[in-house]
Amino acid sequence: MILLVDKIEKSFGARTLFSGASFQINAHERYALVGPNGAGKTTMLKIIMGIDAPDAGEVTYAKDVNVGYLEQETKLASDKPIITEVMDAAIEIRSMGERAEELQVKIAEADADDPALNAMLEEYGRVQDRFEHLGGYELESNARQILSGLGFKPDDFDKPCCEFSGGWQMRIALAKLFLRRPDLLLLDEPTNHLDLESVQWLRGFISNYEGAVLIVSHDRAFMDACVDHVAALENRRVTTYTGNYSSYLKQREDNLEQMRAKRAAQEREIAHMQVFVDKFRYKPTKAAQAQERMRRIEQIRRELVILPEGHKHVDFKFPDPPRSGDQVIALEHVSKSYEDKHVYSDIDLKLYRGDHVALVGPNGAGKSTLLKMIAGVERPSSGAIELGTNVGVAYYAQHQLEGMKESNTVLQEIDSVAPTWTVPQQRSLLGAFLFTGEDVDKRVSVLSGGERARLALAKMLVAPEALLCLDEPTNHLDIDSVDMLENALKRFPGTIVLISHDEHLVRAVANRIVDIRDGKMRVFDGDYDYYLFKREDLAARAAAEAEAREQAHTKKAASKADGGGRTLRRTHEGSVPAAEPSGKKTREQKRAEAEARTELNRRLKGTKDRLKKVDRELEQKRARYDELMELMASEELYADQEKFNEALAEYNGLKKSIPALEDEWLELSTTIEEETARGRS
């Protein structure tokens, strides 16, 4: 046992957050703490850390457990270089090293018959083992590796902490925490200020972390990859599940089905007995039986199954944007520099109506710069950017949330962009973005940064433009709100350019990927899975070509060393070259051919898997295309303008995606045929 949370109770005024909440984390377990917004996840972390006190219950740690806690927001005003700041955080490691050096001196100076010598030797062994286990000898190299994984460049390491923005300071706090290697990590939304590639690095780090971990996150793909247990805050208690987040959802639904069935049975039994009570309560011959049934009803009511609050499934059909021309934006020969820092040179990019584009790549590659140029927030240093016919642009970024009137309430801000919506409709929308109850009457001037971000996002989706530019839109949203946003973006008929660390959102929304790295831009006309496949395939091909070049170089060198010609084998009868043996293959030949086949299958596995997926998608989309063709020929659909527009948008989307999938299918099939033929030759 690393941590025991036992019967915790916590209330704020009349609102009860926890009542008898309990769970236990053991060594090496990785837990996700989940629940709807307002359930008390952050409060639970603060109670575990001792920052907040529970009204009742207790938190117990195993002996000598070292705990590390990352809050959602942090601020470092230090003038220290970040490498020094991170290394200075490893207090335990440094103290262990200092104690080991101190003991070394004492042991060297002690006499052989000193009674304290054995005790010092034993302590030195313990301290030395702990120092090595925590990576004391590799402290600086580990610090540099962690900072690199979190997106810092080597030339950032010597810059003072105070020069970095809030998001980067969160990364510094993460690095300090990871270098310490605490026995228990408590992480509150650790992915919020990371890019997609840093999230992938963090996923691997936590998956291999030796200690125990408790994470609060809205990133489902991240939790699926990292956690092996889920602690769900439901009905003011904690229910634990074994498995990742997707497994939790399935188990929860199975449990709910059982609970619903039991609750229904209890209610039927109560109703059945209540009929008897109502009929015979005042009849002397049946009064005793009626009283017994009344006691039984009260007992069942006390034991009545309490169903957990259902997940919010808010679903809006947002207004369509003004219809634009087919080409939405064109970038031609665009370059961008900041003084002596060069970002882009001579790039070209065309986006069309219906494109949902995700910008991906390592931190600092220029994703946000490209998004700002597309949105018109920044101008290129050279080249031209032209918007298509009737294209308006909406730009969302957490650091650019101007345009809201400080004296307005939240509800008034929404009313300013959706005046035709009823107040219940406006409140429902705001509820999806976590503004509930009296929150809608808050003034904009008192909103936190996260609240302003959510309000700006809500306003954008109420009255969208033909081109949406979104920079990390899921920060500060809970999972249910991310679901709502995902559904809205998937159905959006206009053009989207998106930067997000949320792999689930990118996978669900994007139909084109723009990879940005090393000052270059590459467009992948397919979804995120296609992009991952192509990157892996291109990397494998590059590695194979490098290996082939190396082998050719080795053969050439060997040939030169051998005199540049073949050595002929002579028979004992004379100088006639011996013929190569013919007939059956030798065991070595068979083994070599089997190994070659195995290697070919391994190399083609990803390609074959992708081909199967593309085949399935093509079949489904062609079938849906045929359905739409038949549907759009009916007069009933023409009579319903909204349904007709939805069908037309889906039809236009399929017209673009089916040819792209057919091209990919042909490319994959050709690759498999060519590689197989090459393997046989």
What does this structure look like?
The protein is of the alpha/beta class. The chain is 49% helix and 18% strand. It is built from 20 helices and 20 strands. The longest helix is centred in the C-terminal third of the chain and has 45 residues, at 587-631. Residues 565-582 have low confidence and may be disordered.
Keywords:
single chain, 20 strands, 681 residues, alpha/beta
Percent helix: 40-55%
Inertia-based shape: globular
Spatial ordering of strands, largest sheet: 5-6-7-3-8-9
The largest sheet, given as strand count, sense and whether it forms a barrel, is: 6 strands, mixed
The radius of gyration computed from the alpha-carbon positions, rounded to a whole number of angstroms, is: 32 Å
Give me the count of strands.
20
Count of individual helical segments: 20
Share of β-strand residues? 15-25%
Quaternary state of the chains: single chain
Question: Which helices and strands occur, and which strands form pairs?
Answer:
Layout: E1 3-12, E2 15-25, E3 30-34, H1 41-49, E4 56-61, E5 67-70, H2 82-88, H3 91-109, H4 117-133, H5 139-149, H6 166-180, E6 184-188, H7 196-207, E7 212-216, H8 220-226, E8 229-234, E9 237-242, H9 245-280, H10 287-302, E10 327-338, E11 341-352, E12 356-360, H11 367-375, E13 382-387, E14 393-397, H12 410-417, H13 423-432, H14 449-462, E15 467-471, H15 479-490, E16 495-499, H16 503-509, E17 512-517, E18 520-524, H17 528-561, E19 570-571, E20 574-577, H18 587-631, H19 635-639, H20 641-680
Parallel strand pairs: 3-7, 3-8, 5-6, 6-7, 12-16, 12-17, 14-15, 15-16
Antiparallel strand pairs: 1-2, 1-4, 8-9, 10-11, 10-13, 17-18, 19-20
